[in-house]
Structure formats: structure tokens, C-alpha cells
Fold Acyl-CoA dehydrogenase family protein.
Amino acid sequence: MDFAPDATTRDYTDRARAFLEGQVLPAEPVLDEQLAATPDDWTVRPVVRELQQKARAQGLWNLFLPGDHGGAGLTNLQYAPVAEITGWSPRLAPAAFNCAAPDTGNMEVLNDFGTPAQKERWLEPLLDARIRSAFCMTEPEVASSDATNIGTLIRRDGDHYVITGRKWWSTGAMNPDAAVFIVMGKTDPDAARHRQQSMILVPRDAAGVRIVRPLSVFGYDDRDHGGHAEVAFDEVRVPVENLIAGEGDGFAIAQARLGPGRIHHCMRALGMGERALALMIERASARHAFGRPLADQGVVREWIAEARIQLEALRLLVLKTAWLMDTVGNRHAMTEIQAIKIAVPRAVQQIVDRAIQLHGGAGVSSDTPLAELYAGVRSLRIADGPDEVHLASLGRAQLRD
Amino acid sequence: MDFAPDATTRDYTDRARAFLEGQVLPAEPVLDEQLAATPDDWTVRPVVRELQQKARAQGLWNLFLPGDHGGAGLTNLQYAPVAEITGWSPRLAPAAFNCAAPDTGNMEVLNDFGTPAQKERWLEPLLDARIRSAFCMTEPEVASSDATNIGTLIRRDGDHYVITGRKWWSTGAMNPDAAVFIVMGKTDPDAARHRQQSMILVPRDAAGVRIVRPLSVFGYDDRDHGGHAEVAFDEVRVPVENLIAGEGDGFAIAQARLGPGRIHHCMRALGMGERALALMIERASARHAFGRPLADQGVVREWIAEARIQLEALRLLVLKTAWLMDTVGNRHAMTEIQAIKIAVPRAVQQIVDRAIQLHGGAGVSSDTPLAELYAGVRSLRIADGPDEVHLASLGRAQLRD
Amino acid sequence: MDFAPDATTRDYTDRARAFLEGQVLPAEPVLDEQLAATPDDWTVRPVVRELQQKARAQGLWNLFLPGDHGGAGLTNLQYAPVAEITGWSPRLAPAAFNCAAPDTGNMEVLNDFGTPAQKERWLEPLLDARIRSAFCMTEPEVASSDATNIGTLIRRDGDHYVITGRKWWSTGAMNPDAAVFIVMGKTDPDAARHRQQSMILVPRDAAGVRIVRPLSVFGYDDRDHGGHAEVAFDEVRVPVENLIAGEGDGFAIAQARLGPGRIHHCMRALGMGERALALMIERASARHAFGRPLADQGVVREWIAEARIQLEALRLLVLKTAWLMDTVGNRHAMTEIQAIKIAVPRAVQQIVDRAIQLHGGAGVSSDTPLAELYAGVRSLRIADGPDEVHLASLGRAQLRD
Amino acid sequence: MDFAPDATTRDYTDRARAFLEGQVLPAEPVLDEQLAATPDDWTVRPVVRELQQKARAQGLWNLFLPGDHGGAGLTNLQYAPVAEITGWSPRLAPAAFNCAAPDTGNMEVLNDFGTPAQKERWLEPLLDARIRSAFCMTEPEVASSDATNIGTLIRRDGDHYVITGRKWWSTGAMNPDAAVFIVMGKTDPDAARHRQQSMILVPRDAAGVRIVRPLSVFGYDDRDHGGHAEVAFDEVRVPVENLIAGEGDGFAIAQARLGPGRIHHCMRALGMGERALALMIERASARHAFGRPLADQGVVREWIAEARIQLEALRLLVLKTAWLMDTVGNRHAMTEIQAIKIAVPRAVQQIVDRAIQLHGGAGVSSDTPLAELYAGVRSLRIADGPDEVHLASLGRAQLRD
């Protein structure tokens, strides 16, 4: 057992941190200005494009993609601390490195399961950030954490599939440059529980695709990364070649996709927690009340200490999970993936909440990144299945062993 | 000791509930439409005006004002359950009954401390809802929970006072109909700790008053009730008659104002919690996953039970506090006022958070009132002094006894 | 609604408090000495006998018994604050006032359901404290919170019932003066779910009754109030006249008994919490570390404030529950009884735990009453059904409404 | 970074686990019998002697001692999982391996700071388990977490030191075989804050040493490992050669001793948590109520899942701390040592508490090890400084950085 990061990790971490501090954090107010200047524009803002060019030039690009399929070839363990650093500025840094959800997950799906033609048409431009994508899984009418609930139908009709259904929380789909949607639906509602579902590529401009409306998260439209859309699919026809892998493979692909997706979310969430802690420390020192800095009063030191402890312990659990994924495979890291999916957002939510409390009015407003970080991390406790589903599942697994 | 409400309370409660259900809740989507249709308009929406007319016609008007000074003459104990009912729809119901902060507090200040001329000019139109008002106390640069930190200066210059300073979180001040601001500042920075401050009436249209910008709470602009403004006062001159009570009375007036203000917030927060619980119960029954309603799974029943217990216990504490204010006066209810100020928002925050969790994506979006309720109740833990200041103060009081 | 206690309540409260401070608290070290001097003696210690004489002489006797059946005729609402005061010294004060469980519950059962002969033989000497009693309900092999699990059989055989089964947590039964046991068993395992059970009076000296062993609670034998016994009933024959009410009435009697039993536990638990808070306050002022009293450090004031808030809110909920029992009957106070059964021990456990923490080594040892108070209040979360059963039940009731 | 344990670790872990399961757990009821048979005997029970012989024969002996000074030469990282295994049976396993506190810490002090003569006289028999020892640091009258509070004086008088003071919580000192006490006192109350204290070896049989009384933890006397004593030192004279290191070195030695001591406590606490979790899982499956196993009800699966997550995350933090101690030294692992000292007992306390709750009456009694585990882990939050002192210190360190 050895807790020292290797040279590659140290190298990427150092460069990512330098980029964050030198390029990304100073660009945050620029993003705010650009968003304010163009209220109805859901495309990627110019400042992001500029950061992407700089990051790509420095080799900080597509680092999420493991193996030698076009990325930097980092293992999950090596990528983890880089992803954490991007969590400090979740509106800018992941996009700058072309490592933002849902594109990362979609690229992985195409990389792992796509045909050469699918890769050429969709994966290449995604790796180049020429287009964006969306993942259409969650549905408004049902508890989507139970995949058998899915109501969208993918019906075979000669050389085409015909897709009908309603999706929401399709992150990024408000962006007109999101050129392709990966849609989960049922090809065979009578098949075995986890063989009913398939995934299919649907071009944005296919007839019958309709963006119904944007959804907000605690008042935020998340326009910086293409928002979240409700999308209607009304008899949408796509060629059979658009199916990913085979009929009935949808659930398995979703599981394969969610593993890395969840760990990436957790890595970034740790970075969000670190930023909140840094702001807490700064505020506690700088702000005075009743003649003393806040740092000398009441529970403030306890909050800071508890945040530090939580982040240290959970970071190790995330790293161990990454190591398991690298060494024994995602499948055998299921318990750990569930564990961090539950524990990290919950802990970071509390850290951000306390940071807000310490900042008073500035904490809930847009004068600090805290309220928006809160909305983001709070959503993670719901996205990809609520905590409670994972807790019950993990508990069941323990009871079985 | 008797826990049965009296006939007056039952009467007002019944009527308020009928109005809520018959008039207010159906008007919520109308408010959303009217807000969406006029993005830059901070005035009171037409639907609120209509509700106000109906409520006034039914005698559901100015109920917050105790005693026989123009309201319905309810005691705090009698008003409490009515205020709770308005908390079910905090964007509409308090305004409909002309019982919304900060106007209520401002009316109380004018009622208790105003000269006849001040009352005629400002209190009368406020009681009629012809104008709105703002309360300018919190400042961006300092911890305002410590009144000695206040930086705004009110300098006497002949027959005028000259006001210079910067305020924020002036709720309602974005509304151009907010015709008057009650401003807290220092008339004598060298006086005893709690005799340095004074309060003064500043007309919105006085030269030197500048609305700097709106502030958001999480991502909400709270336009429905006039938003929250940062306001600059740059050598603003008002006649000496605009001073409320005497020089040095500002801290005492603030204390007198905050007691009822805090209990009103707590009453409404209980209603917010009740609405979240009602939504939780509805969702738990209606939503199915893994073949069973959510109500039959994991922690859901525990959440519902704990919410019910918390609301019952805290309601009693709020009611006892109201009874103390009625029988021994606000001053002798200080401990209880602090207790509910700490305990109620904290508990309701958790209830709303759990309701959000049970609703998944619908919970964080605008499809339910939950996310906005969350933002509202979360802010209460900061407004009028953060929890921690009150906890330390209440703890100190216990140690003294 | 009126939160002022009536004259009778004030009178009894004043006298009970005076007795606590003047007689009971000074007797605590005497009890310790008497217990240490006679390690294997489970009878009531002499110091308790003396306190009983004094209390009875002052009319502080059998106050728990509502109505005019021999007690002071207090309502539940009037008795509540007296019971709270006895919670300050749970090893002495309840026994001193002849208001200690399980005798109180047993006396209530005999009072409400007993025949004249049963009352004469058992109730009279219990009201006089000439004998003690035990309640034999919980069984070691099954989850007794589910009454259908009960394995003890009560078989009719001519003019006798024959009882066979194993009970534990029979509080007080180690005391040889506990002359009678009320035993719950099944007379008809095939009857409807809640008509299978009956209760029967079993004299301690009946053939086949065997005290198996004492049980400890966190290392304490609770010898001061007769310990907790495991008891075997091996073909124990008692005359049919010993049945309480009729066959199949056992569940209903248990429910009737548990309502008051639970509220009494909660009242006393509040007193335990108040004593822990008083000790916390004293310690925080008296103890110094790093040059300052503990009261000035870290979370101490917050702990004290939160304890005060919790106790105030929960006391009101207990009092309202008592008022409901008095005005609409135990049956219609079920939700409130469950609510306090869940909420009070949980909150007091935390208060005592924090008081222990503040006392360091003295807190876990016998130098303060805290560790033993902890063991007592911790057990309340298990006794009469664990929290979780009540939470689920209360949650279900909310979902039904 | 590599999370796989090395071959040595796997070897010792496997053997320790086999010994635990084959020898230690079956010996637990034997220990109970032997303790019950000899109520006033504080010496090591025969069953422990037998286990020691077997363990020593298998090379499971003195594993705690790092380096090549007589132990197995394990690093802290290698020893950690072995120590965790001993935590499953804290009354037997640590003693069986001669790895029980406070002897481990005392042996480390002698090993690191002792003279050859001191080692020969005290260390050798301790390593052989021929004698036991105690560590006398905490004092009843003062907050000992602040070392400047220490009141015991060590006065030089010619060739002797004369020791006067009062200590308590001297674990193991009730055992007459505890032949030597390491006593912390002040040699120079006027020296710099952390140079006032010295440590000195005091033979149990020195004139003036008096064992005042045993202390209990909750209701346990902890007789299995020599209890906890209050000890009076009344003008006790020992030769100057008994001083450990030099005058004024006491604080530094204490710090050096506490680092490993704390991590050992945390390792064992993890084992205590694992045992509680194992019992929880077993009970949840075996016990039925309302027609279903507890595992299918309410919060049980959530409790199990949360326990698993907590233990995994905290184990990694403990292991990383051990690795830091091995690679950069105890001094540079201070933050991590404090972190685990705070986080592990707190988490394990909750796990044990929930296991108790799931076991009902069996949980608080001696029928499961849970209540005694609870008392043990609860005390860890007080021993070696309460959580709050460490939280404040860790928070301060973060604020400095």
C-alpha cells in the first residue's frame, strides 16, 4: 500500500492547478458578463472557447478517457485529482478541458460500444469539441431510478427505428450545438427485466424532436453548460445503424456509463468542497464581529476542521474506487462506486451549506460561487438515482455477503 | 393551561384557510405567467392586487397589527395560525393580506414610534397597500449582526440630516412603488454601544438615493415581492422631521421591530414546512418505484413522521412565544424569540430538503414550489442575524441565570 | 389557548421541587452507600423508605393516579410537571412519591380493570407501598413490539389457568418484595390478531415461577429499583379469578397501560434532561482550560442553547399530549403519544451525551449522575417498542389521513 | 498510489484473523465466567494467560512495536489491520497479543527514551508480559487536555525526586501486577509552557503511592484489563535515575507517545465498528417482526449501508495516517492523527448505537458485546483530550495554512 501519487499524476495535477489559477478563475467574471449580455443564448460562450484552445494546446484535453483511445491515457486513479481540480470551477473548468458531463459519458459510450461509422460521425467531433451532445434517460412521469419504468418506446420499422416518448433533465440539450442525443428506450417491453432497454443515437435535427422547455435548478438555468431540457420525441425515425450495440443492451450500457460518470461527479464534488472550504477559511479570517474575527467564535473552527476531515477521508475512498476500477474493473467496484455516490455529495452539501452560513447574505447571492455550488451538489444527490436507492441497494449487498 | 384556540382564532383561521385554498393556491400559476410575461418589471403583479381586494373585502387585512390601531385587533397568539396559513404560499398570501415583510415591520415601527405627520404620510398608504416600503439595515462590508459595525452615517446639518452609506438586502426595494426606506445609521459613533444608532425615513425619490443592483437568493430574483436591492445613499438630505423617535434610539427600535418580525417569519416558516410535508405525503403515495409506492420504502415514513413531530413541537413553542409577547411583553419573551428564530427555520429547511429529495428532479425545478421554498427558508437562517449569533447569545443567557 | 399553569399545578410543583431539593438530592449519596454496603440485596433500601414516609406525610403520594380513585386527583396535565421534577433523581424521587414504573402502570391496570377482590389483594398494598410488582410482557426470543409474536401460553384447565413461557426485562422483579407479576400471554393463538392475548396476575411465590437472572443496562444492575429480571414460568397454575378483565383483552389493556406509561417516561426524561443541562451549565462556568472557562470555548454555548430549545419545545408537546389525554382521551392522543415517545428520549439522550462530553472522565464515571442517566434514557428508546416501530407507525398514520 | 496490502500485511492479517476466530471469540464466555467467579480480583485472568502463550507461540506478539527493537518489525501501515482485528474483542485480543494500552505506549516510551537500566528493569518484563504498567497523566481537578494545568509536582531532593499529586483514569492500575507507573508532573512550573513537565518511573510499591479507588465507565469496572484507578502520590521518593529523558522533556514525550497511542485506538475502534456491523447484519436477517425480517424494514438497510461507507472511508484515513507516520514521521502526521482521533470514535459510536437499537433489550444488556463496546468507544471521545479540543486545534491549523 502506498499513498504517494505517481509522477504522471503529479505532473497533470500541477499543470491543471496552474491552469485553474492562471486561466480559469480569472475567467469566471468574464463568463458572468457574457451570460448577462446574451440572456437567451444557450450556446457555449466565447470565453469557454478560448479556454478550450489554451487547455488543448497544453495537453489538458480529453483526460477523462482511459486507455489509449485518443485521450492522454490516464488511469482513473491518475485522472481523479485532475477532475477534482476542475470541480473548483464547475461552470468553466470541465468544459475547458473537454471533460464535462454529459459529453464525457457519451464519448465513453461511443468509444466503448460505437461502430466505426458512429465514432466517425459523432465521437470525433465530440473529442474536438466541435459539437456537444445530450443523454436522454430520465422521464418526467416515472421514477427513472427503476429502469423497468421507462416509457419511451423504440419500435423497429423496416430499416428504421421509430422513437416516441418524453424525457427531461437532458443536460446540455438546450444548447443548439448539442447535435446528437443518446436516447434510452424500450425495444422489447416483454423481455427480461434488464433486456428490455436499448440506446439509440438521435440527431437533434431529426423530425419529431422537440425541445419543450428548459428546467431550472434552484432558480438557476445552468445556461453556461446548455441547461437542462425537457424533450419530446414524437415518432422520430432514425436508421437502424443508429442503434448502439444491440437491442436489449441499453441497461448494460447505462450501467457501464454510470460507473465512470458517478466517480467523475464525485471527484469534481470534492473540488467544490475544497473551494467552499477555502472560502470558509478566508472569510473566517477576514470578517470581524463583536471585536474578533469569526475564526475565534463559536463553531467556526469546528466547521473548518470537520470539513477538512470529511474531504480527506472521502477523497481516499474516491481514489480507492478509481484504483479498483483500474485494477479489477468497474463491475467489481460497484459497492465503492455506490458508497462514494452516496457519501461525497452529502458531505460536500453540508460543507457548502456551512460556507454559505459563514458568508451570510453574500453566501446565498451571486457574490460568491457558493449558492450555485450548492444547487449543483444538491442535485447530485438526485441525479443517477437518489441516495436512498443506492443506500438500500448497498445495504442489501452487505446483507447478502 | 389550555391548548384549545379561542373562537376568534378559529374564525380567522377558518377564513384564512378557505381563502388560501379557494383563491391563493389557484392564483400561483397565474403569478408565474404574469412574472414570465414581464421580465424586468419589479412592481406588484396584477394578480396580487386582485387578491388584495378580495382579502380586504373579507376582513383578512392588516391582521398582523396588534392592539386597536387599525388592524383587526388580534393578539400575537390569535394572529399566529393565520400567519402560518400564509406561509403555504409565501409569494402570494402574505401580500394578499397586506401582511408581508418588510412592510409589516415598517408599519409597526411607524405605528409605535412615528409622529402623527409620519403616520399620515407613510403609515396610512402602507395600511392601504397604496405604497410599499423597504428597511435598510444590513451593509455589505460588515457583519451587521453586530450593530456597532454599522458604517452608514446620519449627520445633522441644520434642519436636515445627511445620510451616506451603502446598504444591501433591502427587501422590496427593487419595486419602484416602494416609496419610503427606513434607514439605520449612526448619528453618534462615539456614544455608548447601543446609543450610536438612529433610524430615519428616506423617500425613494430623494436626491442621492441610488438602487445599485438586485441581489439573487440562490438563483431567484424574488421579483414577486420586490426583490432585494443594494442601495447607495450618497449625501442624501432629508428634513429632521424624518427621524424616527430620537437620536440614539435606532438600536432600541430595531430590537422592538425584530421581535414581531422574527415570530412572523417563524409562523410563516411553519406553513412552508406544512406545505412541504403535504407534498411529501402526496408524492409518497402517488409515486411508484420497484413495484411499490415510495411510502412503503426505506426512510420515507420516518421522514414523514419526523416532519410531523418537529412541526407539532415547534408550533407549540411559537405559540407560547406569542402568548408571552401578549402577556409579559416582547422584552420578556427574548429567550423564546431567539429559540424559535433558531429552531424553526433549521427544522423546516430539513423538511423541505427531504421533500425535494422525495420529488427528485421535480423537487429542484420550478415544477413544485419546493426549491423556492428552500431558498426562502434557508435565507431565514441568515436574515436578522445568523443562527450562530443567536445560539451564542441564548447560551450566554442560560449561563448567566 | 393559555400557557399558564393553574394553581393546583403550581402548588404541587412547588412542593415537589422543595422536596427534591431538600430531601431527595441530599439522599443520593446515602443511597450509593447503602447499595455499596449490601451488594446482593435487591430490596428497597432504607433511605427510600424514609423518603416515602416524608413524601406521603406531605401529600406527595400516588399523584400519578388520575381521577378520584385514591390519588390526589390530578389530571395528566397537572401531574406532568411533578413527574418531570422526579426525573431529576430517577433512582429516588419516583419511588419516594410511589410514582415509579412499573408499579404505576400496574396500579392503573388494577384500578381500571381489576375486580374488587383483585384490588383488595394487590392494589391496596401497592398504593401503600407495602409490596412492589412487575410487568412481564417482553420475551427474549421474539420482537415483542409485535404482540402477535408473544410465545407465552395461558391455558385454561378447569378452575385454573396454566402459564408457560419465558419473559425478560421484567423491571423490579429481582426485588423479593415484588409480590405479584402481571403476565401477558396468549389464551387463544387462533383468535384475531389483537384478541389472542390476555393478562393474568401471578403471585411471585406460585409454584413454577423462577427468577432466572438479573439483566444489566450498560453495566448497571439498577438494583435501586429492583433490577430487571429474566423470569421463567413453567406450568404455573393460578385460579381463574386471577385473569384481568376477560380472555382476549390483553392487547387492549396493554395499549391502555402504555399510553400513560409512555407519557410518564417522557415527563421524567425531561427532568433528566434538565438536570444534565444544569450540570452542563455549572461545569461550563466552573471549569477552565487554556486560560478561559469552557463556557467561552467552541461549541459549549451552542450545546447549552440547543438543549434549552429542545427541552422547551418538547415539554410543550408533552403537556399538550397530557391535555389531549385529559380532554379527548388516550385513544385520540395516540399520534401525540407516539410523537413524544420518539422525540423526547432521543433529544434527552443527546443532551446527556453532551453533558458527559463536557465533564470528561467525570462524565462517564459514577462521580456525576450523567452516565447512569444516559443508560436510563438510552433504554427508553427501546422500551415499549423501539423508536423505529413508532416512527413507521406514525408515518403510516400521516399517510392515511 | 496503490491500495493493495503487501505480503507481510496479508500474512499477519490472515493469522491474526484466524487466531481471533479460532481462539479469542470462543474464549469470551470463559472470560465472563472467570470474572464472575472472582469479583474482587483485578489481576489478569487465566484465560488471558493461556491466549498469550498461544499467540506468542505463533509469533503474534508485540506487533505494535515498530522498527527492529524486539517486535516483529512491522511498520505502522502493516500493523494497522492487525490492530483492527484485535478491536473485534477488545477485552481479550489486545492483551492476548501483548498489544494492549496502556502497556504499548509505556513500552514505546521506554523503548524510545529509556536508559539501558530502565529498559532492563521495566521494558523486558513488559515485553514478556511478566508485569503490567500504568500511565498517570490525567488529574481529577483540572482539564488535563491543557498540559499547563497539571498540578502534580516532581521536586528534586538530592539523589531523589519527590512526587506529590493526585491522578485518575490510570488505566490498568487496579491490577496489583501493574508494577510500574509512568507519572507526568511538573519539575519546573516556571519554565516555558511546554518545558515545565517531566515523566518519571514510579514503582507501585514505593512508599506514598496509594490506590484510592476504582473508577467505572458507565456501569463497567473494566476489571478485565485492570480497571481505571484514582491514585494518590504523597511525597513519593524515587531515585533520580527514574526520570525518563531529562527534566522538561515530559510534554515532548507525551506528544511522542500519544501519536501511536491514538492511531492504535483508532485501529481497534474500526474493529469494534466492524463487529457491531457484523452483529447488525446478522440480527437484521435473523430477527422477524410484523411478518418480515428486520432487514426489509424502515431504516435498517440504510444503517447498514452508512456503517459500511463510514468504516471504509475512515479505514483509509487511518491507513494513510499510518503511512505518513512511517514515511514522514509522527510530527508531520499531526493533522491526520487529530483527524482520525476525532472522526473514528464518533463514527463507531454511532454504528454501535444503531446496532444496539437493532438488538433491543439484548443490545443494552450483557447478552451481546454491544453495550460494553459502546462504553469503550464513547470513552475514546474523551481520552487523550476531548474531540472539541482536537477540532479546535485542527481548525486553527487549517486557518494558519
